[in-house]
Design a protein that fits this description.
five-stranded parallel β-sheet; 419 residues; alpha/beta; 19 helices; 52% helix
């Protein structure tokens, strides 16, 4: 880090921002420094959210230096590889990240990429490590066989394990699947050489650290037995207990979880996250577990970027058809993520009423004063509360509103959407 000058990089980066972009960066920095580890920047398309993210990287890098970190890991997640290829270069504030193609975005492969970057003198000198991921290829564990690159890397690790040393030929035939040309042409030797190079650079720490994580993996024994039995059945043309894809998927998930445990990101940037909101899920599916463990590290800060973070409204027709007020549900999904599931509890604790859609009319007893009436506050078209001036009528209205909420005994959609 001797040649890493955070003052110079910050000055250069922030000087390229417009006033409102710089103000946003400062606000993000303030929130991160005051224990709000998840922040949403919502702005129109073309307003420079990527530049704001660039500024946030520099500010958070300074914060991590103050917190005595020796390498600042930034994960950049966007919807596809084309956007990742374009934006990852904009986010490289030091110019020291070795950015080629971002094709190695499979989560199960990140243990190799992490090791390569952590031992790259240029990246270590630049302090900031950039790792791009794309949700569809990185997080979704489909029932397919994965890519030939993914399988070649798994093979390079598994062949080094004592449990499989007597089954290397059968293991390789299984890993090839239908990619014979690519496997023999480049994939097998490319990843074998990369693993061997990391083994040399780390004096054997890698891949031994990955192997130890495999051996300690909760389901390892059952996966090992299933794989060995599968190789035996294939070798002797027996009826397969499980399909090739099923066994491969178990291996891919195992390696993905191991990679997640090694990533330990300091900052995660989710660009136009509304396109992959499934990552905000906290359910107990394989995807939910991966996303939760990835985003919920103790010191992990998350920056969400979006022009449309949630659906802004639902028509009565949509509500009738779907039996769901989607914009309300999406709003709370985002809020629950940002505030770590505290929002629903806060809303419920305040005797709130969310009126059924059919009752939301200016002609019912809940009529709200509006600016068109000459009042300086009220619900405007977006149903956002504006209370910009002190006025005795405002206090009057609030008193009546609280009384109505306390005495309301009709249907409350807060309860309807509690789950």
């Amino acid at each position: 880090m001797s040649q890493f000058n955070i003052d110079e990089i910050e000055k250069r980066t922030l000087s390229g921002l417009k006033d409102f972009q710089r103000a946003t960066v400062e606000r993000v920095d303030y929130l991160f420094r005051h224990n709000q580890n998840r922040v949403l920047v919502a702005d129109e398309v073309g307003m420079g959210k990527t530049l704001i993210a660039r500024g946030a990287i520099v500010k958070t890098a300074r914060l991590r230096i103050e917190e005595k970190d020796d390498l600042f890991k930034v994960i950049y997640i966007c919807s596809n590889q084309n956007i990742a290829n374009q934006n990852i270069r904009k986010l490289d504030v030091t110019g020291k990240n070795a950015i080629g193609s971002v094709s190695d975005t499979r989560l199960s492969m990140q243990h190799l990429k992490i090791t390569e970057q952590e031992n790259d003198p240029q990246i270590k000198e630049g302090f900031i490590q950039l790792i791009p991921l794309t949700p569809e290829t990185s997080f979704r564990m489909t029932t397919g066989g994965g890519s030939v690159q993914e399988r070649a890397l798994m093979y390079a690790i598994l062949r080094r394990m004592p449990d499989f040393k007597g089954h290397v030929t059968s293991l390789e035939k299984f890993m090839i699947m239908d990619a014979v040309k690519a496997w023999d042409g480049w994939a097998k030797w490319n990843f074998e050489n990369r693993v061997a190079e990391c083994e040399k650079m780390t004096k054997g720490v890698y891949p031994q650290n990955v192997i130890e994580k495999i051996l300690n993996y909760q389901e390892y024994e059952s996966i090992r037995d299933m794989l060995l039995n599968h190789l035996h059945e294939r070798r002797y043309n027996k009826q397969l207990t499980y399909s090739n894809y099923y066994v491969m998927n178990k291996l891919r998930v195992m390696f993905a979880r191991i990679s997640v445990s090694m990533l330990e990101p300091d900052l995660v940037i989710m660009d136009e996250f509304q396109r992959f909101k499934f990552l905000l899920s906290s359910d107990d599916s394989e995807l939910g577990i991966l996303a939760h463990s990835f985003l919920s590290g103790h010191d992990t800060r998350v920056l969400l970027l979006s022009a449309t973070p949630y659906k802004l409204y639902s028509t009565l027709e949509e509500i009738d058809e779907n039996q769901l007020d989607e914009h309300y549900a999406e709003f709370f999904q985002v809020m629950n993520f940002l505030f770590d599931d505290e929002v629903k509890d806060i809303a419920n604790s305040y005797d709130c009423v969310l009126l059924p859609a059919g009752n939301r009319s200016r002609k019912v007893q809940w009529e709200v004063p509006r600016k068109s009436n000459g009042w300086a506050y009220g619900f405007r078209r977006a149903n956002v509360w504006y209370a910009s001036e002190e006025d005795s009528r405002l206090q009057d209205y609030l008193t009546r509103l609280v009384k109505q909420i306390d005495e309301y005994d009709g249907e409350n959609w807060i309860d309807k959407y509690a789950e």
